[in-house]
Amino acid sequence: MSNKLQKKQAPSIVVKPTIDLTKINTGALTAGLSKLTIPRLFYQLVIFVMDGSGSMTYEGKTGKSKGDELSDSLIDTLKRLKASKNKNCFDVSMYAYANESICVLRQVPIKDLDLTKNYNPCDFITHYNSTKLGETMEAVKQECNDYLKINGEKNAQALIIVLSDGVVFDYDLSLKKCNELKLNNKITIASIFFESVSWQEGFNIDDLESYKKYMQDMASNESLFTSTLNADEIRNHMIKSISTVSKIN
After folding, report:
1. Of 15, 73, 207, 215, which residue is the least packed, with the fewest Cβ within 10 Å?
2. CA distances from residue 153 to 42, 122, 148, 156, 244 in whole angstroms, order as listed
3. What is the pTM of this model?
4. In whole angstroms, how far apart are CA 98 and each of 105, 132, 172, 194, 226?
5. Domain-by-domain residue ranges, the chain?
6. Phi and psi for 175 in degrees, rounded to 5?
7. Which residue ranges does the record assign to the VWFA domain (predicted)?
8. Which CATH architecture has domain 43-246?
């Protein structure tokens, strides 16, 4: 009986391809990565509604006009938002009001906002010997409703920050508009009474507490209202309001 030798096949060797890192187009890779965006966790519209009446041209606590103090506080607040890890979640609008209603800034993502500008509301107002808020709140209401409708399937909400340094002449109408907005549980109103170093001519200092109460009643709750002479406290109240509503640190 003859022995038959069977040849065994040599095991196959799998050669894994290697990456030559010297041949990677790093410029193209960087460009590609730069286009990647972190998905938005939420859609937060913040609308600043600023008194631009004549009294906002008066000197504030720092020696600047109250309008300039407000602009500085606003820009500081927005810089903080723009530097936050959630910056792509915020959109911003601004209005100024007096005898007239002016849209200072149409809705823009916070990341695209130009913070080199001055946002003194008095710079946008031509007729300023009265303080009428109702027309502006109607425009704000429409903007909020449109924003929430467009982002209806998303985690979306709106925060309105209203500031006045005196008497709102059309208070009943303004409060009515605020109460209409409060009916939507996705809309929150914060308010600030920016007090004066010296009280305005023609108004009784004894009524000051009533004017503060008017502004407080516009807010969604007492914690979202502040009354202050200090522009830094205005900034802090803005930041606190945004953080509270957006549930971020």
Report:
1. 15
2. 11, 38, 9, 8, 22
3. 0.83
4. 16, 5, 16, 15, 21
5. 43-246
6. -65, -40
7. 45-248
8. 3-Layer(aba) Sandwich (3.40)
